[in-house]
Amino acid sequence: MSILIYIVTGLIMLFLILVILAPKGYDVSRSIVVDRSKAEVYHHLKSLKNQDNWSPWSKKDPNMKKEFHGEDGTVGSMTAWEGNKEVGSGEQEITALQKNERIESKLRFLKPWKSESDCYFQLHETEDQKTKVTWGFTGQNAFPLSIMMLFMSMDKMVGPDFEEGLQGLKNHLEN
């Protein structure tokens, strides 16, 4: 009986250690320089409809169903999507706009699992009148996902998609 108590106590301790060590949040971002003015890049990025021109997720599911609500490119405008198992389903809502500087939105994922993230595009003019675009998202890891994140990397899962998307954005705007 005492061996069983030690095993159960050990498992509880291991579980508590994992909970304490588990990352509570994430912050993933990537950047690229686009040979266009901040105003041009901002005008393109604030439109949710324009994202289909370069989004890596649109390529993963060209048959994805999308709906748009509100006046595109304004705070409160929203897109909802339902796609294959690679893109899942969810919605994105523009929550803040700082003209020619920053676009913020809320991402609400419904499938394959429910979660929320804050997404942003930050624009910086470079010395040669080009625009550095930083695309990122942040959020909190809810339990039990937080424990799974000890063995997985949000940066490795999403970072390559951001890189592909930014390269697509650059190609789209420069051509």
UniProtKB/TrEMBL annotation:
Keywords (A to Z) from UniProt: Membrane, Transmembrane, Transmembrane helix
Sequence intervals crossing the membrane: 6-22
Record-linked InterPro entries: Polyketide_cyclase/dehydratase, START-like_dom_sf
CDD domains: SRPBCC_1 (cd07818)
Classification via Pfam families: Polyketide_cyc2 (PF10604)
Name under which the protein is recorded: Polyketide cyclase
Database matches in Gene3D superfamilies: 3.30.530.20
Keyword Hydrolase: no
